Structures are given as structure tokens and as C-alpha cells.
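One such given next:

>
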Amino acid sequence: MLKVQILGSGCNNCHTVQTRAEQAVRELGVQADVQLVTNHVL
């Protein structure tokens, strides 16, 4: 299974990216785990 991680602070833009990624995954018919990660270290 594909794993998609969105790295961000948890702001509205991060949630928008997560929602759009989930939508793209559904439209493509791909099995993927889309996660918003807010405790990352860069």
C-alpha cells in the first residue's frame, strides 16, 4: 500500500492539501494511506 505523508504545522493549508491528496487517491483508485504529520523534524 502507498503511504502519503503531508508534513506541516497543522494549519488550514495543510488540511487542504490532505483533503486534496485523499480525493486524488480516490479518483485514481489507488490504495493509499494519507496522513498529516505535524510532529516532524526538518
